[in-house]
Amino acid sequence: MDKLIGKMLDNRYEILEVIGTGGMAVVYKAKCHRLNRYVAIKVLKEEYAQDEEFRQRFHDESQSVAMLSHPNIVAVYDVSRSGNIDYIVMELIEGITLKEYLARRGPLSWQEVTFFSMQIAKALDHAHSRGIIHRDIKPQNIMLLRDGTVKVADFGIARHMAQQKTDNISEAIGSVHYVSPEQARGSHIDNRADLYSFGVVMYEMLTGRLPFEGDSAISVAVQHINSIPLPPSDYVPDIPPALEAITMKAMSPSLTRRYASAAQMYADLEHFKDDPSFKVEFSPDDTAAYAEQEIDATRKIANPGEVRESAHHTGSRRPHEREERDERRSSVKTTLIFSIISVGIFIIGAIYFAISVINPFGGDEAEVLRAPSLIGRTMEDLQQDPEIWDVYDIQEGQQVYDETAPVGSIIDQDPQAGRPLDEGQTIVVSISRGPQTITLEDYVDMEYRQVEVALNRLGIQSEVVQETNEEVAVDNVIRTVPAAGAELSAGDSVVLYVSKGPDVKQVVVPNVLTKMLAEAEAELRAAGLNPAQATYVDSDEPDGTVVFQSIPANSTVDENTTVELHVSRNPEPVMKNKTITFSIIPAEGEVQVEVRVDGTVQYSSVHLTEDGEILVPLVAEEGTHTVTILQNGQTTYEADEVF
């Protein structure tokens, strides 16, 4: 059994069960006892948690991702550390991964592919607009809810994995099928890397298979760099041309011919959804052109088996389409020749590099150009420095929010200062946008717990102050300080003034015990209280009197509080019959006879001595009663009899 099951993190999150295991973390289902809801918690594995630098980056970047708020992105609620456990608290998704869905269904209809893809594109556009690159888009990181909603997961988490595993791509077999060429080469990447991976996901949804397969992660990565995938329509002939073009454009190995943004890709998907005859500005030759212009390694073409398979699938195409395909294959063969020449040149260059730069023979080392330190400087400053600007190729990369660095200053560079540079290698710098400002929304009349969650996602602290209010419902926000529209930064605080309802008058509860019901109810109403419908109970107390009140007398409670009353109901007596036998006393003349039960006459008659033995029937409640017999005024018998 997992040692974390049953543990409480930060006295808030109770770990219930394992729901997933990844390369660097274990995901648990947990219950948040503060907000009374179920969440998913991703706990960093011990081997990563022991690396202080990794832990810090994991924490910092996860905090950044927690600020994403989009219906197609799995929400990150919290990032924390409990003892030696680093963890992320996320939205718990009841659904399956797109990978599982594809395993069940195989190729999806183009309508379903379009529906899912538009949601993924919106999620990526939201993240990219906030400077966050996913870096590991694949069906395993895309969740499908029962209503068809798509949720993209693990934003920012893949970044850590990429940084830790750059030198060992074979450890990323699950991701390498979706990796962009620039990622496979270890080059600097931007948001377009996500779009390439997104294109591979679309390819898999359309065909039920991956564009590149291989015996190892390395062989697959090389294919991403050097190979051209067959069009999806070679496997599924009925795919609309526009949707195929969108997929292939996203998968273009050429950064300049790939989609520039997720928003641009979403626009084409939307045009296609509205008009399936929509023409996408993309040509299959764009992928072939990349091999001649933009890569250094050799290019792989389809092996004879693949060519025969392609011919089998495309035999029913029109003649001019086959001619186009033949021309493309001819272009690939030509490319192969140039690639072989390029490899020869590369090998000669490598030998020259080994001799002249590495110099294994022990001579003086040649001077190596190394990256200068650019952190803290600005692009304007660098342009005025000829020793930097005229020597190095510096390119401005992402602009990111930073709480401490001034706007416009360089906060990161790739390669880092002191690293050797290849001839013509570009140094990409990240520029500070200064502290991120957040415009406070209008949360008035919203339930305050929802507002706390929304603010927490933005990195804003919240404090709750309760007030009475005649108009705003209980637990809803009356106002915020600062007010809506204020500009805040992550870490700032907002005071939520929350309604606890109208100001209620206090009243004293009267004592209504032993009083008749009508009188008791009248006294409660006069005191400003609300008597509930009475409950009748068997009791020895006088019938109809109050024997219990739910709120003790003299208590102080809110006006209109309901008071429950119990009222006595005497049970109907159980009557029993009994016959008394006795003899008439000797006397001259008549004898007056009376039989009494507990003093009450039940029998009175005149008898003669000659009547002898008399039988008198009596009736009384079940129990013991005193029976008295009088003859001519004299008591001739008195005793307790059981009825």
Structure description:
Helices cover 31% and strands 27% of the residues. The chain is an alpha+beta fold. It has 18 helices and 30 strands. Helix 4 (110-128) runs antiparallel to helix 8 (192-207). The protein has seven domains: 1-92, Phosphorylase Kinase, domain 1; 95-285, Transferase(Phosphotransferase) domain 1 (Transferase(Phosphotransferase), domain 1); 301-367; 379-432, Trypsin Inhibitor V, Chain A (2-Layer Sandwich); 437-499, Trypsin Inhibitor V, Chain A (2-Layer Sandwich), CATH 3.30.10; 506-569, Trypsin Inhibitor V, Chain A; 575-642, Immunoglobulin-like. Residues 157-174 and 289-366 have low confidence and may be disordered. The strands form ten sheets. Strands 1-2-3-4-6-5 form a six-stranded antiparallel β-sheet. A four-stranded antiparallel β-sheet has the order 27-26-29-30, with no helix packed on it. The chain starts with 7 loop residues before the first strand and ends with a strand.
| Number of domain units | 7
Termini separation: 71 Å
- Give the CATH topology of the largest domain: Transferase(Phosphotransferase), domain 1
Gyration radius (Cα, Å) is: 44 Å
Main-sheet strand order equals 1-2-3-4-6-5
Q: What form results from the Cα inertia axes? A: elongated
Structural class: alpha+beta
Q: What's the total number of strands?
A: 30
